[in-house]
Amino acid sequence: MGDGRYSFVVVSNRLPVDRVEEEDGTAAWRRSPGGLVTALEPVMRASGGAWVGWAGQPDIDLAPFDNDEVRLVPVKLSASDLRLYYEGFSNDTIWPLYHDVIAQPTYRRVWWDRYAQVNRRFAEETAAVAAEGATVWVQDYHLQLVPRMLRELRPDLVIGYFHHIPFPPYGIYSQLPWRTQIVQGLLGADVIGFQRVADAGNYARAVRRLLGYRTATGSIEVPQDGAPPRRVVAKTYPISIDTAAFEELARSPEVQERAQQIRRDLGNPATVILGVDRLDYTKGIRHRLKAYGELLEDGRLQVGEGETVLVQVASPSRERVEAYMQLRDEIELTVGRLNGDFGTISHQAVSYLHQGYPREEMAALYLAADVMLVTALRDGMNLVAKEYVAARGDEDGVLVLSEFAGASDELRQALLINPHDIAGLKDAILRAISMPRDERRRRMRALRRRVREYDVARWSRGFLADLEAVRGPAGGPPAS
Ligand code: G6P
């Protein structure tokens, strides 16, 4: 739109690209980490809308600019905003609380105050770029107060919110000192989307317990003074990937050749086991290393030519949050021990990579891996599992998948595991390694059918159709 206002606006903490300083002092843009960007990038490219978010560096003033046919509108965050709102409340209160308190959440009033302030800033900047009657789609746990703030600023907008991470059971959620404000913040949306049926159920229960509102399957009635209640849709829309694009990438001769090269570089093992995660305590990397280490110790697996190697990609994440620093130390100590105890001059037990990689390299790694381990202790969806399946056009490879990842609701033909059950995890790894070709093919075919049919376009279509259905019959502002 020529007037700098857009009829479709996505809002998330991060923009799809991060501004980084090169060694020579110049600035460059790099793709942002995580599943949110993976899913939304293709949706946005197709929509021609605007994307409001933070550009990945503190204290920089940036004018809106175009990237891949999407208008990016940077929100400025100061170093102290990042400490209190992003590292503090978002990633040291909400993240551990919503992931079943795997790590202890910290509750600090100054973090909460700043979270509310920064959410207001996002709401104001969004209000400034949204055209009359626009559709605004707010993303994820950093911005849970934005839907309500935005509705107050701009009652003409149609507002969606998608929650990419789990929503915890009430017994856990109720710890949060600001539990009522957050529940109300989300209710400012017309449609609230969750990954799993359990997440939507947990949220509806929190609404009933805290506000006493009536809920039915898939919707909540919000009482209004002197008017009929406003109906908020709150249901499940499992997120996915751009399956066709990923398949095509994995089919390219460069990626196929690179996959073979990776196996050669690893010293031609018979079995490549792969883990790909942000370095996060929710991902169960410790449990995975424990199971693998015990298999080496028991002599049920060996390291060397024609034997086994575990490739673990752990991309750097939230490196200034204490729990992440500790996790990194623990993982690297364990990897060092495993390589010291079981490696040889020419072969490592674990090839550990603390780096992020471009999509091409990821696709090659998936193709090179006989077994993919996804052992999350809690995960909203886990798009790595879906990418692995999409990459395997050869209908080979075995996915070992935690039942605590949202993806396990759909990917039923994976080997489903409980990552806390180390004996069960060890057996599943061995079963994956020795699975006959026929069974591998049968399972992978079924998984591929699912991921092809339920791709990210279907996810966004489903969500946005429900959002558009909220509009009045004349296509005007929502009838509420
Ligand atoms: C998860 C969250 C995203 C987040 C991503 C990367 O996928 O759901 O909202 O962007 O992790 O984390 P970061 O803190 O680096 O943005």
The main sheet comes to: 10 strands, mixed
E-strand count: 18
Averaged pLDDT? 95
Q: Measured on Cα atoms, how large is the radius of gyration?
A: 23 Å
Low-confidence parts lasting 5 or more residues at pLDDT below 50? Answer: none
Query: What is the 3D form?
Result: globular
Please give the share of residues in helix.
40-55%
Physical arrangement of strands within the biggest beta sheet: 5-6-4-1-7-8-9-12-11-10
Structural class: alpha/beta
Named once each, the bound ligands are: 6-O-phosphono-alpha-D-glucopyranose
* Tally of helical runs: 16
Strand content: 15-25%
Distance between the termini: 28 Å
Give an account of the 3D structure.
With 480 residues, this protein is α/β, with parallel strands linked by helices. Helices cover 43% and strands 21% of the residues. The chain is built from 16 helices and 18 strands. It has helices spanning 35-47, 79-98, 109-129, 146-153, 170-173, 179-186, 197-211, 243-251, 253-265, 285-297, 322-342, 359-368, 383-391, 422-433, 437-453, 456-468; strands at 6-14, 17-21, 27-31, 50-54, 65-67, 70-74, 130-139, 158-162, 191-194, 215-216, 219-224, 227-236, 271-278, 308-315, 350-353, 371-374, 398-402, 415-417. Helix 4 (146-153) links the parallel strand 7 and strand 8 (158-162). Helix 6 (179-186) crosses helix 7 (197-211), helix 8 crosses helix 13 and helix 10 (285-297) crosses helix 14. The radius of gyration is 23 Å and the shape is globular. 49% of the residues are buried. Bound molecules: 6-O-phosphono-alpha-D-glucopyranose. Residues 14, 33-36, 140, 164-165, 317-318 line the site of 6-O-phosphono-alpha-D-glucopyranose.
